[in-house]
Specification:
The complex is a heterodimer of chains A (453) and B (223). Chain A has 453 residues and is an alpha+beta fold. Chain A is 50% helix and 18% strand. Among the domains of chain A are: 73 residues; 146 residues, 2-Layer Sandwich (Heat Shock Protein 90), CATH 3.30.565. Chain B is elongated, with a radius of gyration of 18 Å. Classes of the chains: A alpha+beta (453), B alpha/beta (223).
């Protein structure tokens, strides 16, 4: 899960979503913080205003009784001042007198700050009865009818206010969280919608590599169009380069081999040492040239619709049969019509041509070629081709060395000994497999696994 | 047997020509595709050796043109392009056999012999007519086991007749197939050759079909 997440954030979509989401989160967090602070200060302001009004009304109903005691001409309207520990309290102090307190305080006494006299309102937090935490407003007042200084205090329990603030914060966080979730979802959708052409481009390239298409086709958004064009141009250039290389190889073959034929014929049959050496060296040149030209020709890629192998095998058999007409070898082909090779015609020809040719050279009377699809693996499908002869076969100890370059077990049968090496090279380039095995009672069988369409 | 060689490399062409002459063929040479195409289209060859990489007109096109025009003579293709795809394409174009360069001329001669034999419907390399035996591999002629020494022209004539044993062959046809194009032909010499061969073989396998030509046939009753 962790690895998957890391993988997601490594993708283009992931990076875009991540960066946009971080910005949104920061913006929402700042917004939320500001809102919460504003709300809190507004609520506190409201509390303070109420406390100030309460002090005003307390002053309004205060009078000095004929006995010279401070009293209220009528009770304050809020019933909570009468209920013990209700959260609403007042207290009036005069130096040297017992404090005059609301009933709600019960046996609790607020601690007035009498050291700092102030006729303006002071607000502060203080402890209250029953462990309450109070917001207290206080001021000193000289009642008009007397010269006595009274210290008025009014307090309110903050629990309610704090509960309100907490509720507001909770609501705020929920709302912001919801907004964040919505924004993130929208971001993912938006990014994946925006990047969809890129993914389509990727799929196009996959199809080209798989050989299903040969160019990127269709309309692209204006900012992707140049990319698509460039990729097409690159593919085209690549094709041209391959084509040019093949033409060069063909030309080189022609240019080298005619003079080689002349040299070989010039010294063939001569018995002096020099001529023999020239002959063997020119054969060596021929072998080297063959090996490298053949390797250079191998393309190793998928091709458009694939190659229908039945028709191709028939033609190759015809080409091989020409060389074995004297022996009257019977070539049997057993191949389903629908099998297609996922690769270049030249490469298929080279592999099967060499194997069938080899089988034809050694066979006593018959060569059989069978091709069949094999169970599809999840990514690629393969076919199996068997080329079998009824010749003398090869000892088990030699069988693995046959694929080596320049290896020829019997010098009497003509051939440069490069055929099987190139077979293995090509097959491996296509991610296939080639192996040789003995046939009972005698003969050799080549088994190939090649990619099919 | 008359053979056309279309090859643009001078030295190789010369080597081939030399070996063919030594092996008793009448040989016409051409060094470009257009000239080769013309010769092959107008002269009656028993076989053609055709290089695929030719100037003016490439060998593949020459071959296709011949086949499209209904020319059926056996063609052996020489090619430096030795991929199997090239071989398949060569055969598709109508070649009867191919040889990839570099090659040894002996190999070419062996392939050519086989090609001519097959085209004439002969399956064995030893042609036989009664007591007369002609081994195409070494050009030896024997009658009941006795070796007979023939001149080059006599051999060419007998070889052609033996390849087409049982068929009536006109003097013109014989002339066309035992002389190359530069030879000053005179059909009267054919009669001289035939008589000499009859004398050397000392059997009556060559019969004269009046007004038509000759036929090779072994008649058990004759001497």
């Amino acid at each position: 899960m962790k690895a998957e997440l890391r993988h997601f954030f490594g993708t283009l979509t992931g990076r875009l979503v991540k960066s946009a989401a971080l910005w949104s989160l920061a913006a929402l967090a700042i917004g939320g913080l500001v809102l919460s602070l504003v709300f809190k200060s507004y609520v506190l302001n409201d509390v303070d205003k109420r406390l100030s009004m309460l002090i005003d009304s307390m002053v309004g109903v205060s009078e000095i009784s004929p006995e010279g005691v401070l009293r209220f001409s009528r009770p304050l309207s809020d019933q909570r001042f009468m209920t013990p520990e209700s959260g609403q309290y007042w207290q009036i102090n005069e130096d040297g007198q017992d404090p005059f307190r609301s009933r709600s305080l019960w046996d609790y006494e607020l601690a007035p700050d009498v050291k700092h006299r102030s006729f303006s309102l002071q607000y502060y937090e203080a402890a209250g009865p029953a462990g309450q935490s109070l917001r207290v407003a206080e001021r000193d007042i000289i009642l008009p009818q007397s010269d006595r200084l009274f210290h008025f205090q009014v307090g309110t329990d903050m629990a309610e206010v704090e509960a309100a603030i907490a509720e507001f914060n909770w609501l705020l966080i929920s709302a912001l969280g919801l907004i964040m979730a919505t924004v993130t979802t929208a971001l993912v959708l938006q990014v994946s919608y925006g990047l969809r052409p890129l993914r389509r481009l990727g799929r196009s390239l996959t199809e080209i590599r798989a050989g299903k298409e040969n160019r990127i086709k269709g309309d692209w958004p204006q900012d992707l169009q140049p990319l698509a064009q460039e990729i097409n141009a690159l593919i085209e250039q690549n094709e041209k380069l391959v084509e040019r290389a093949r033409t060069h190889v063909g030309n080189l073959a022609h240019a080298l081999k005619t003079p080689l034929a002349v040299i070989q014929n010039e010294v063939d049959g001569a018995s002096d040492e020099a001529s023999k050496r020239i002959y063997s060296q020119s054969r060596l040149i021929h072998e080297h040239v063959d090996h490298h030209l053949k390797r250079a020709r191998v393309a190793g890629g998928g091709s458009g619709a694939g190659l229908a192998i039945k028709d191709r095998l028939e033609k190759l058999i015809k080409a091989v049969a020409v060389t074995t007409q004297e022996k009257g070898i019977d070539y049997q082909l057993n191949c389903e019509e629908s099998i297609r090779f996922d690769g270049e015609k030249e490469d298929f020809d080279e592999v099967l041509g060499n194997l069938i040719d080899n089988a034809g050279k050694w066979a006593e009377s018959k060569v059989s070629i069978t091709a069949a699809k094999i169970a599809k693996s999840p990514r690629r499908s393969f076919m199996e081709i068997r080329v079998e002869d009824d010749g003398p076969g090869v000892g088990d100890e030699d069988i693995d060395t046959l694929f080596e370059r320049g290896r020829r077990l019997d010098e009497r049968v003509p051939g440069t000994g490069l055929g099987l090496a190139i077979v293995r090279d090509i097959v491996e380039m296509y991610g296939g497999q080639a192996r040789l095995e003995s046939v009972q009672p005698h003969g050799l069988r080549a088994v190939l696994k090649l990619p099919s369409k | 047997m008359r053979v056309l060689v279309v090859e643009d490399d001078e030295i190789l062409a010369e080597q081939i020509q030399q070996s063919l002459l030594e092996a008793g063929y009448a040989v016409d040479m051409s060094n470009d595709g257009e000239d080769g195409h013309f010769l092959g289209g107008t002269e009656p060859y028993d076989a053609v050796i055709l290089d695929l990489g030719l100037p003016v007109l490439d060998g593949g096109s020459v071959l296709k043109k011949w086949r499209a025009a209904g020319k059926k003579m056996p063609v052996l293709v020489l090619t430096a392009r030795d991929s199997w795809t090239d071989k398949v394409e060569g055969l598709d174009a109508g070649a009867d056999d191919y040889l990839t360069k570099p090659f040894i001329v002996e190999e070419l001669l062996a392939r050519l012999r086989a090609l001519i034999r097959r085209a004439a419907g002969q399956s064995s390399p030893q042609l036989e007519c009664g007591p007369v035996l002609l081994d195409t591999r070494n050009g030896r002629v024997t009658v009941s086991g006795r070796a007979v020494k023939l001149t080059a022209q006599e051999f060419k004539l007998l070889s052609y007749l033996m390849h087409h044993a049982g068929k009536v062959i006109s003097r013109t046809e014989l002339t066309e197939h035992i002389y190359d194009q530069d030879f000053d032909r005179d059909s009267n010499t054919i009669e001289v050759f035939v008589n000499r061969i009859r004398k050397k073989l000392d059997t009556s396998i060559i019969q004269t079909v009046r007004g038509l030509g000759y036929r090779l046939e072994w008649d058990e009753g004759a001497v």
